[in-house]
Every structure is written in C-alpha cells, then in structure tokens.
Structure prediction request, 395 residues.
Amino acid sequence: MSTATLEADAPAPEIEAPKPFTVTFIIRRFDPDTDAEARWQDFDVEMYATDRILDALHKIKWEQDGSLTFRRSCAHGVCGSDAMRINGRNRLACKTLIKDLDITKPIYIEAIKGLPLEKDLIVDMEPFFQSFREVQPFLQSATAPEPGKERVQSVAQRAIFDDTTKCILCAACTSSCPVFWTDGQYFGPAAIVNAHRFIFDSRDDQAKVRLDILNDQEGVWRCRTTFNCTEACPRGIEVTKAIAEVKQAVMRGRA
Amino acid sequence: MPDSTAGTLQTPDAPAKQRPGGTLYRGNEGMWSWVLHRITGVAIFFFLLVHILDTSLVRVSPEAYNAVIGTYQTPIMGLGEVALVGAIVFHAFNGLRIILVDFWSWATRHQKLLFWIVVGLWVVTMLGFTPRHLMNVFGH
Ligand code: SF4
Ligand code: FES
Prediction:
C-alpha cells in the first residue's frame, strides 16, 4: 500500500478551533457605600468549556465592570482565597470549570454564607480565623528533639492525620454549615479539622487541651452531620469524618 | 463616591433578577436528612406536649378526659395519626443512622446510602401501617 501522503493541492486539514459560547452569570453584588441591600446583577461573558469561574470573574472585572470585587491570589487551588457560592454550593472559583456546570441556565455566584458580607464576593474572614487560632493549630511538644535530630514519626502515625493536613483554610466548609449560619459562635468544621491535625499528631503533647476546648458548648457537639462541609471541601478532606474522630477522642478523653 | 466602572458594556441598571436574599444552599442527602430530622423532632415534641396535657386530664376528671379523647376519634385525627407515625418512624430510623455515622467510619463514608436505606425502611413501615390504620379509622 502506498503511503497516504497528502496531495499537494488538497487543503491542509484544519483543526477546528473551539468556539466560545455565551454564558450568563448572575452575581450577588453589594457595595457598602451605596447599597442598603445586596442586589443581583447579570453579565454575559464569552467562555470556553475549559475556562474556570475565576476566568469569568476576571473577564467581567477587566472588560465589563471594574468595580466587581472578589478575592483571589494563586488562581490554582492552593491559597484558599476564592471560596464562593456557585450555583448554591461552596466552591473555589479557580477550581470550578465551566464544562462542569449547566450553562443552559445562568450561573449564580454569591459570597459564602454566615460571615459578614463586606463587598460583592468578599466577606470578613476574621471570625473564621479567630476560631482557627483558638484551637491552637501549632505543634506543642513537651520534649525537645535529640540535638541535631528530627522528631521521629512512623508512616502509620503520620497516616492517621494525613487527610487533615491538606486544609487551605478557604472556609468553604465552615460557611456551608447550617449550624454555623445560625450560630456564629460554633467553632466550625475548619477549626475542628485543624485541631484534628494536631490532636492526632504523635509528636504533639497538647491534645488534651484542644479536646477540652472542643468539648465546649460551641465545640464538636454542635455538629449535626449534614455533610455539607465534606461535600464543599475543595481539597477532598473528609471533614465530617474528622469531626466524628474528634468527638470520639473527646469521649475517650484522649487522642 | 468615584465611579469606578471600567467598561461601558454594562448599563448600570441592567435588568437584574431581584432576589434580595442569597440562594438556597444546595446541600444533598446529609443536609436534607437533617432538615427532616429537625422538623419531625419539633413536631413530635409538640405532640408529646399536648399528649401529656390530655393524659393528665384524667387526674382532673375522667369525664373531661373522655370528652377530649372522644374528639380524637375523627377521620381527620386518623390522618393526623398517620402523619405522626410517619414522623416518629423517620426520626427513629434516621436517629439510628446518625448514631452509626458518629461512631463507625464506614457509615460516615456511606451516609448517603444509609439515608436511602432509612427512606426505604420508612416506606416499608408505612406501607405496613397505613392501610391497617386507615381501615380502623374509616372501616366502622
Ligand atoms: S477543610 Fe477543606 S473546605 Fe474547610 S477550610 Fe480546609 S480546605 Fe477549605
Ligand atoms: S485563588 Fe488560590 S485557591 Fe483559588
């Protein structure tokens, strides 16, 4: 068989360039200087299936309305800046692809719930970080490691809390929690996840203190296992499972 | 305030959907089972409250007790009893599910499956109960 060479006069096969399509976004806006109430505003944006919600927000901000306010830093799912409610579910804008959403309908974007709204998609994260700090999310060891050595930890010991080391503090979990919406005092899933990370760390000696903190009225017992947090976590952390493990550690009185 | 609008493509008063609050959070089985658990729990609480009051009437006077209980023997109350049993059965089965979810990591991972099992058990129980009960209520 002769080699199937392209005939000279045949037009070069054209790779069809993907065509953008128009996607409608309905964004909940709020400007504290002019608005008494938040309002919904819609934007039509040309998008590709492989674009992310964050690209849409950029396009809107750069080409249509520079006053649109949102937070983002890394744009690659690492920093945890851009958790927001996309079609009614907490997601990172930079990890949500257009092709995974139903674009025959408009896409609703709003700020995460349960934290004070500051402007457009930005909320005051201070109460969230306050709870995070309260669980003492840092290594506290009673003994110093051998001079010149690291603290030894086996693979099995490390595996116990591996899941909860992945948290990027985006607040998607805490602000998806119906308990947190009505009771802002609740520590919230993220704080418990980060407590879990140290409670079950074999090198740490202050598990008892953290368990006492979380045995509080507003601690782990507020959790009603709605699993919104587990489903919202962009890092795939099994948040509710971590909370259940902390609950059991509180009952046993030790990690 | 300075007009910080960069582009001109967007008219300021574009017809925006006026929905003052945020959208409803779209949780899945876990969230809705919790909502149902709350609603049935509160409903059962109020039933118990009334039930304790009417039962304690018997100490006030047996006649008053009989009169009150008599008003319960109506078809409407019969349907209400179906609702009451439905609420209790759901609350009971889902309560067991929550215990499993809290204490057994397999159940924590498979809570959705467990929710549908609860729904299945609820349907089976109600299929057993409702026809018999309604025959009693309407079958005189
Ligand atoms: S546990 Fe997940 S959802 Fe919660 S703050 Fe950490 S990364 Fe975000
Ligand atoms: S911008 Fe950093 S996580 Fe999305």
In short: The longest strand of chain A covers residues 21-29.
